[in-house]
Amino acid sequence: QDAKKGVIFESFPPVLHLQLKRFEYDLQRDAMVKINDRHEFPMEIDLEEFLSEDTDRTNPHKYLLHGVLVHSGDSHEGHYFVLFKPEKDGKWFKFDDDHVIPVIDKEVFEDNYGGEYPNENTITIRSAARNHERFTNAYMLVYIRESNVDEILSPVVSEDIPEHLQKRLKQERAIEDQWRKEMEERHLYLIVKIVTAEKFKVHQGFDLANFDDRQYPLSEVFTYKILKADTYGSFKEHVSRSFNIPTKQVRFWVFVNRQNKTVRPDAPISDSLTNISMEEIHAKMTSRQNEMKLYMEVADIPLSDLTWFPANHIMVFIKYFDPDKQAFEGLGHLYVQKFGNVGDITRFLREKKNFSPDTPLKIYEEVKPNMIVEMKLKSTFQQSEIQDGDIICFQKALTEKEIQEHTTSGRYWDIPHFYESLTLRIVVLFKPKLKDRDPKPEFEIVLNKKWTYDQVAGAVGTHLNTDPLKLRFTTAHSTSGTPKNVIKRTTNQTLSEMLQTAYLSPPAHVLFYEMLKISIVELETKKFIKVYWLGNTVKDEEVIELGFPKDAVVNDIIDEISKHEKVTSSSPNSRIRLFDVHHNKIQKEYTGSEPIERIQEHTTLYAEEIPQDEIHADQNDRTIQVYHFTKDPIRVHGIPFKFVIKNGETLADTKVRLRHRLGMNEKDFSKVKIAIVPGASYAKPEYLEDDDIILSEKKLSNEECLGLDHVDKTGRAGRVGGVEKAIFIRG
């Protein structure tokens, strides 16, 4: 009797989502595929004819299209966007990531029907026609019942929005408004950075502070955002109040960029400019800078009733170098007279550090980073070309014994060499290489460009409180910033060469790090082998990871496997076979004498106990490779293995041995088709369906294999040589 199959709907919802089934499982390909065929969809649909006779038809079942969900690409990668009409009689809009733009009807309908592009009927070459197939098409439609449109698309009121979203939206709007306000008012403000004696005291670098050279640690100077229209008087009063210092005891010096690329205080801002705007002072004294940099001079005692600061003197800055601490100490500023001798300040310098009056000193001028000049004590400051803002450095004059002690300890013993070391300092950002699998912190460390691998590892190990020998570093790709090459501990490269970014502008000083479970010495001197051990059946397996000296041979691997706790042998005289698998076929069976260095890093290795029927096979028996596929011999999967074709044995008996070797029950094995697969990839397999066949009589060649045609249910195809298809969602 003929039967009719169908669906009768009892009702339809106010909002109807129609899935267009653009994706389906292809049995031939054993994969999901996308259907790009043309499918037209209307603006209006009437669903009355699909309703049950008993359905309430008081309200019409006419629906209007208001949403189209679109996919562009294939089943493995693509991009999604939505076309939506938010108002009853309004326009269509395209919502594509963070872009929302109006579109015309053609972009909603014709462009998303699928099929081929218009006017492609003139193309006769099949492959060329395929290239013009539309890969962008609708996969879901959203219809709203016409009688419910006003209700569904009613204006959104605050009560409709969840409280947490309202709060977040309010915060985002506040941030956006603040940013917009700052952008609009940016021209009204001036950024002022202030260096104090306290900031100078701890500065470890050139000049008085590092304002913007990110190759070195930036100084934490005081920063103010002021109105350009503010007068110098009001600015000075505001800053003085914030430091709790009387205004009369404060004087500001303007930093300028000198021609030798140093940044030094150049001239004080006169109190006669009290009523002048900061904008005018900036334009007059530092017009080439976007921001204003100032040194705040503070007087402790007055020179007279009305005078706190001297005139007609040169203000210089003093740095003391301590070779024991390998550090500078900023001792503030000092007034000198241009005709005074350099030696006149030695008493002041000794007193500053509580040295005895007869302590010999070495005095230098920091002219610029690569020019540190020893000063002559009998020369005048004018003869030494000293001017406001110059920096004078001093240290104790060391004995030969003290110099030798510092040198032996790896310390810089004098000011010129310490300055040279400062030019080699570099801020390196360390990022965890395996952030997703093992979250670790990012951090910055000041290192030396000439350091070796072990010195870098020592500094990072101290920071992370871990053994430096259990750290491994990887360079960063210069464009993508992703991990690039592992750095060997045995490298002769300096840190600067490891970074490989000297040619970039600005330079990117990034290294990735890993925290290892074993010593990097062991890791680099040994070769680590991962082997899958097969048990009594092909489906039973254990992962065994072993490490060997790099001069070991394959027999050493086999010997270690035989002793491993996961390995149980059937007899003391059992033999183990090691073979590598590529694309789910045995590529090579090792003899045992091969050096392990020849085994490629990503080789998939299997080991198994050689079956007794293979060991005791007679001269008329034949050992053949068996592998798995689905429908087509090139669609391989599973674990291949060696199998004995016994002389004179029927296919029925061979199947029994195969089933036991596979560890399959009779029901599952009944779905397996056995075939002889020729060596040529294009040749068709010969399926064996007669259980009375004597397989040994087939006279198989060395290139032919036994193929098992069945669906892969193990999910292991990607590991043993099959290529896993990654799914990418673009945008």
UniProtKB/TrEMBL annotation:
GO terms of biological process kind: protein deubiquitination; proteolysis; regulation of protein stability
One function term, GO molecular function aspect: cysteine-type deubiquitinase activity
Entry's Gene Ontology cellular component terms: cytosol; nucleus
Its EC number(s): 3.4.19.12
Keywords: Hydrolase, Protease, Thiol protease, Ubl conjugation pathway
USP domain ranges (all copies): 1-146
Pfam families: UCH, USP7_C2, USP7_ICP0_bdg
Catalytic activity: Thiol-dependent hydrolysis of ester, thioester, amide, peptide and isopeptide bonds formed by the C-terminal Gly of ubiquitin (a 76-residue protein attached to proteins as an intracellular targeting signal)
PROSITE patterns: USP_2, USP_3
Residue ranges that the Swiss-Prot or TrEMBL entry lists as coiled coil: none
InterPro entries reported in the protein's UniProt record: Papain-like_cys_pep_sf (IPR038765), Peptidase_C19 (IPR050164), Peptidase_C19_UCH (IPR001394), USP (IPR028889), USP7_ICP0-binding_dom (IPR024729), USP_C (IPR029346), USP_CS (IPR018200)
Family per similarity comment: Belongs to the peptidase C19 family.
PANTHER family: UBIQUITIN CARBOXYL-TERMINAL HYDROLASE, UBIQUITIN CARBOXYL-TERMINAL HYDROLASE 7
Protein name: ubiquitinyl hydrolase 1
Origin species: Rhizophagus irregularis
